[in-house]
Task: structure prediction
Amino acid sequence: MTVACNECYWCARHVGGINLWGNITLLIVKLLGGMFGRSQALIADAVHSLSDVIIAILVIVGLKVSSAPPDDDHHWGHGNIEFIVSAIIGALLVCTAITITIVSLATIIRGAVYNPGIPAVWAAAISVVANEIMFRHSLCVGEQMDSPAMTANAWENRADVYSSLAVLAGVFGARIGFVVLDPIAAIIVGVMIAKNGLGTLTSGVKGITDSAFDNKAMISQLKRMVTKQQGIIEISKLRGRKVGQKLWIDIEAMFEPQMKVSEVKKTINVIRENVINQFDGIGDVVIVSRIPGPRLKEI
Result:
């Protein structure tokens, strides 16, 4: 677990528990506020919080498993579990969004709408503030750890902020006479949840399927670092893959043919150490040496 300071280390250790208990508290607040305040939108948001509780548990388990060191069965470590967790989070959010939307549309069609009470207003306002705090905390930890699962969880909290704002607007609108705005706000919540869920699901699937590492600035810097080493003619191939929080890099470099084997090995070790020291979150660097082959004469 790579973090910047002792404070970051404390946050990284406790962020899962903070999110879990925070979401459990919000689940209770929204459910009570929705029931006593007669708000369809707030009850829908409470269902969203239930999915948040499940997500928080998945993140805790995922981070614990992904931090396990490589073993005989997993030579690149267990980091891909984070992408699996991200994909599960995305799928849960999409299912939650579909459920909320269907129930809200059915409420509008039946005409079973109510004028929400003050408890719904307070519950929605508390949800906005609490989710924004959890978003900022989780995003900070996710960026410091370069954790896909934690970053996905952070942006899920930001989606909660927007959905709670929509609920708050719907409840206010319903209280001034536009009662249909409460279930409409619930539908808006569902759309927001679906959008965020699809993004998280796509990100997780890309990680699981080893999509190409596309940090162009880092790739250019790596190429410059390698080619400036004495004896390197050019880079034939450079590729990377994310395994959870770690980046594994493969480099195929063309060496000058007159170099000795010992010199090539020394250069490879220097490049590997430089890359690991220069960039954070490097799992390992594998460098394959090549020498120019004989060119065929034109006929």
User: Anything to note?
Assistant: The longest helix spans residues 6-36.
